[in-house]
Amino acid sequence: MKRPISYDFIAIGGGSAGFNAARVAADLGKKVAIVDGAEELGGLCILRGCMPSKTLLYSTDVLHLAQHGKLFGLNIPSAKVDMKRLHARKKAIIGEFAEYRAKAMMQKRYDVYRAHAKFIDPHTIALSDGKLLRAERFIIGTGSKVSVPPLPGLADTPFWTSDDVLDLDFVPQSVIVLGGGIVACELSQFLSRIGSRVVQIQRSSHILKEHSPEASIVVEDAFRDEGIDLHTGTSIQSIRTTSDGGVSVTFLNSDGKKLTRRAKHLFNALGRSPNTGSLDLANAGVELQKSGRIKINQWQQTTQRHIYAGGDCCGPHDIVHLAVAQGELAARHAFGEKKLKPVDENLLLSVVFTEPPIASIGRSEAQLKAEGTPFLTASYPFDDHGKSILMEAKRGYVKVIAEPKRGRILGAEIVGPQAGELIHCFTAPLAMKATVFDLLKAPWYHPTLAEILTYPLEDIADEINGDA
Ligand SMILES: Cc1cc2nc3c(=O)[nH]c(=O)nc-3n(C[C@H](O)[C@H](O)[C@H](O)COP(=O)(O)OP(=O)(O)OC[C@H]3O[C@@H](n4cnc5c(N)ncnc54)[C@H](O)[C@@H]3O)c2cc1C
Ligand SMILES: NC(=O)c1ccc[n+]([C@@H]2O[C@H](COP(=O)([O-])OP(=O)(O)OC[C@H]3O[C@@H](n4cnc5c(N)ncnc54)[C@H](O)[C@@H]3O)[C@@H](O)[C@H]2O)c1
Question: Of 199, 274, 376, 462, which sits 20 to 30 A from 312 (CA to CA)?
């Protein structure tokens, strides 16, 4: 048997979690290897996730504004997508990001192995190119893959995944989108705005079920107004290919009525599952949760304490800044850094890049109610705010949730223009445990979208002061 090459730290997977763990370990002076089996380096976020989707969505936001030029007193005779250019722009932008990441990975500080890894014992991995590597400590950051749930007919019907939709260079005539999660919603609106006829079918009673029904309903109304044939509270009965090469989906709608929808293409956006199947984790003594995610503790350690995990393969949320934070924490903990803090669930930040977008931070009303934690809440609508009115962006609201005695901010939810940017008015205050009174000491420029936040802050302050 060959002698393994030895390292202090090996990252299996060079995405957001693995790469950032490797970077920190190298900063700490350790001998580090990154093993990644992908054809192209960069990870999901850069290649087929956040960056391509947001590049395309920005273009369709601009397109939508141009198509509604009349609202702004503009005469734009025709505004249409040019799919070849849109596709080329996306490829150029993503190409640059990927090149930058690949350069960062190919520095002398790491050895990079372009192969798939699997464990043969708790300290040794075998690579698909036949090499053996050994390390004192590991991080598993192998990400996630598209799920194919056991829906009748799905496995036998050709379908697109988000990878295909993000790489389109033509306008599909019609698409049935299965699912109502973030991927389904962001890309349904993209498809609809480039000119496809879109049917979206979701099992639960609201889309984006991780958010409040109140927030989801704002987006559902916008989708229906834009012409998306959206069905929620459904149960899919059958999926099949039609004789003309299209697809047909039969489902029970929320009233129990049987409906069939046909389209040229099917887009499976029914979720993602952790990518751990080929790692032979049993050989390393690394256990999985029921969900298939790798079991971790607050320091990202798996059930085999010198093996850490970060990102989509362990969750609990598939969000990039968390994958980065988990990777960094794992590497620091692995090499004994003191005064570390676990990733703080009370600061959970989420942005859905639909239009209107939804953004939230911290605890939700539903969570606080379920825990029996007392709280105050106040909200204010965008249709009564100067800046959003002049932007013709009147859907949605801002909501602040605070502790009832001192007014410490516990959470916030924003649905409406620039929600993904505005929510960052709360990130530092929440991290610093600020109160509504602290935020009201700050200046708020007029006329901005951000100044809308002062209204719910003032309402809560008044309630605590007894002035309400
Ligand atoms: C369409 C879409 C849009 C998204 N948009 C956003 C967004 O706007 N904001 C946000 O926060 N999140 C977004 N996400 C989620 C985000 O992309 C992921 O949470 C994040 O990229 C996961 O990072 P990771 O490091 O866990 O995995 P990845 O980046 O997937 O990295 C895993 C790496 O491991 C490698 N690998 C796998 N198995 C092996 C093996 N056995 N051996 C060696 N290498 C292996 C893979 O090749 C890959 O490079 C989006 C996801 C999708 C699908
Ligand atoms: N803006 C962002 O931060 C962003 C963008 C895209 C993706 N992501 C992340 O990527 C991850 C994957 O997103 P996703 O949208 O693919 O997954 P998801 O799990 O969020 O959504 C999957 C959807 O499919 C539905 N579904 C699942 N099984 C079903 C069945 N058998 N029948 C009918 N409906 C079914 C679910 O109810 C859910 O609405 C998410 O965790 C998300 O955090 C984040």
Answer: 199
Specify the pLDDT at position 103: 94
Instruction: Give the C-alpha separation, 350 to 161, whole Å.
Output: 22
CB-count burial class (<10 Å; 0-12, 13-18, 19+) for 270: buried
3 state DSSP class of 119: strand
Q: Are 138 and 52 in contact (CB under 8 A)?
A: no
Ligand located closest to 249 CA = 2
pLDDT of 468: 67
- The Å distance, Cα 16 to ligand 1 centre, comes to 7
Residue 87: the pLDDT is 98
ipTM over the 0.95 cut-off: yes
Task: Write down the domain spans for the chain.
Answer: 5-41+106-146+273-334, 162-270, 346-467
- CATH T-level assignment (fold) for domain 5-41+106-146+273-334: FAD/NAD(P)-binding domain (3.50.50)
Which pLDDT score is estimated for 390?
A: 98
Distance separating alpha carbons of residues 83 and 189, to the nearest angstrom: 16
Task: Quote the pLDDT of residue 262.
Answer: 98
Give the mutation target among 164, 202, 204, 270 for probing the ligand 2 site: most ligand atoms within 8 A of CB.
Answer: 270
Closest Cα to residue 259, out of 248, 251, 267, 270? 251
Residue 1, CA distances (Å) to 4, 57, 132, 324 in order:
9, 52, 9, 36
Strand order through the sheet with 174-178 = 229-231, 197-201, 174-178, 265-268
pTM of this prediction?
0.97
- Up-side HSE of residue 1: CA atoms within 13 Å toward CB? 8
Q: Which fold has domain 346-467?
A: Enolase-like; domain 1 (3.30.390)
Say if 5-41+106-146+273-334 and 162-270 have the same CATH topology: yes
In this prediction, residue 352 carries a pLDDT of: 98
Judged by DSSP in three states, 134 sits in strand
271 CB near ligand 2 (under 6 Å): yes
Class of the CATH-defined domain 162-270: alpha beta
The residue contributing the CA closest to ligand 1 atom 50 is 49
Residues in the chain with pLDDT values less than 70: 1, 468
